[in-house]
Design brief:
Helix content is 37%, strand content 15%. It is an alpha+beta fold. It has a five-stranded antiparallel sheet, sandwiched between helices. A four-stranded antiparallel sheet has the order 1-2-3-4. Helix 2 packs across helix 9.
Length: 459
């Protein structure tokens, strides 16, 4: 028996040593995948707690863990409300990642833990937007005739609204005619647009163009490109995601996009230093990195960093009355124009109405003539899926307008986990549908949109 006992003791000691060694390794040098997971959790919890007033555990359970990788279920978060910080760790111990709340600039990932640098990156405290008023939308938040008749029945249909719907707003002839909200969400809840942000960011490029800062043919776009062949990339190549620069948008691993969003305090660095994989204009490459570069470019056009930080509010959100809109910046002060705009469903609809009106609001032109048309024009290399202005022609899931039974002039804003907005000029309609609906569920908002269009009163 003694040899067996000695063997068991040795085996136990070996297992303990392996477990201890693994724990030490995870603590000292955690794999990037764990850091990405914790960075994602910290950022999402931070924004929803400090901007939307939601419960941190509910956000972790529902927004982070429910639809994602099983690894995310191991994450624990802690919230320091006094410091405005969120920390996320695997099993509560490993691969810590951080997010910091910066007031009017929302939250930012702080992957290097340098909170001081992150705080100093956005020193400006812009004048708050106008308070909510009760006038009819879009002038205010009032809705006179929403949820009447057939439209209300369509929005109440769970199969048409889709799993975990959070907001649906239908705008016809410039007024909200129907809306519905998921449990726990309302007209006052800021909602993350994910890649819908790209189209708003493109509009900020258009605002700067309207002010004479640049044009579609502008080159020498970044200081990093001054002395090499990337200096020949034109603004239109970036807007159409045809720059020729390599970028890996695979969210299933530690790819360029996840490294940029959750491991780099300066998100410009990775895409700005990407190598060529094709000549500009020859290949479509969906790239959140490209959208971050566009943010840096229009901010550089403004020149003064404080004026650039105030620009989204001053140039776009305040004129449109988007009082809830918060475009978040990275830890070094560049707006994350690929992913991080929070706004209420009413304010997302205001932006859609702005595009429907060809970049004119209250009789004032804010975008160059023809700019919205660029947003509706397909890029050659994307086979008609994507446009020359950071928007989509294909509906979620890849359906063409013809396949979806929609008017030919329909174009879209689309985002991760079921965020979508359709603009249908021929029907004078804007349709917003937000939720937490992963693509794996197969939901298609165009099915509801088609029935909404059929239910509208004849012109």
């Amino acid at each position: 028996m003694r040899p067996i006992r000695r063997t068991l003791k040795a085996l136990t000691a070996t297992i303990v040593a392996i477990v201890a060694g693994g724990a030490i390794w995870l603590y000292v040098r955690p794999p990037e995948l764990l850091r990405v997971g914790d960075g994602y959790a910290a950022k999402i919890v931070c924004s929803n707690v400090f901007m939307a007033g939601r419960d941190p555990q509910a956000v972790l359970n529902n927004d982070v863990q429910a639809p994602g990788n099983p690894l995310l279920r191991l994450i624990r978060v802690s919230v320091d409300r006094e410091q405005g910080r969120v920390t996320a760790r695997i099993l509560g111990f490993f691969a810590p990642s951080y997010a910091l709340y910066r007031g009017v600039f929302g939250c930012t990932s702080v992957p290097d833990g340098d909170f001081e640098a992150a705080a100093k990156a956005t020193p400006l405290d812009p004048v708050p937007l106008a308070k909510e008023n009760t006038a009819l939308w879009p002038e205010g938040e009032g809705v006179a005739a929403a949820n009447d008749g057939e439209l209300a029945s369509l929005l109440a249909n769970e199969a048409l609204a889709g799993p975990q719907m959070r907001a649906i707003v239908v705008v016809h002839n410039g007024r909200i005619v129907a809306e519905r909200y998921g449990e726990g969400f309302s007209t006052k809840t800021p909602l993350l647009g994910w890649s819908m942000t790209k189209t708003v960011n493109a509009a900020l490029v258009g605002r700067a163009m309207y002010e004479g800062k640049g044009n579609f043919e502008t080159t020498n776009l970044l200081p990093e490109w001054k002395n090499d062949e990337r200096s020949h990339i034109k603004l239109r190549h970036l807007l159409g995601m045809e720059s020729g620069l390599a970028f890996n948008e695979n969210y299933g691993s530690v790819a360029d996009v996840t490294r940029m969003l959750y491991l780099d305090p300066d998100m410009v660095t990775l895409p700005a230093n990407a190598p060529f994989e094709a000549e500009p204009g020859e290949r479509f490459r969906y790239s959140s990195g490209t959208s971050v570069l566009l943010s840096r470019i229009w901010m550089d056009w403004i020149g003064d960093q404080q004026k650039a930080l105030a620009y989204p509010t001053d140039a776009l959100f305040r004129p449109l009355g988007m009082s809830s809109a918060v475009l978040e910046a990275d830890a070094r002060g560049t707006f994350v124009g690929s992913s991080y705009l929070y706004a209420t469903a009413h304010d997302w609809a205001r932006f859609g109405q702005f595009l429907l009106q060809d970049g004119v609001w209250n009789g004032q032109r804010l975008l160059p003539e023809g700019f919205v048309n660029v947003m509706r024009t397909p890029t050659r290399s994307s086979s008609g899926t994507y446009t020359q202005g950071q928007a989509w022609l294909a509906a979620p899931g890849g359906d063409t307008s013809a396949e979806a039974g929609l008017p030919e002039d329909t174009f879209w804003l689309e985002g991760h986990d079921g965020q979508s907005m359709a603009i249908v000029p021929s029907a004078n309609l804007v349709f917003v549908r937000m939720g937490l609906t992963p693509s794996s569920l197969g939901y298609k908002p165009q099915v509801l949109l088609k029935q909404v269009l059929a239910a509208l009163p004849a012109s």
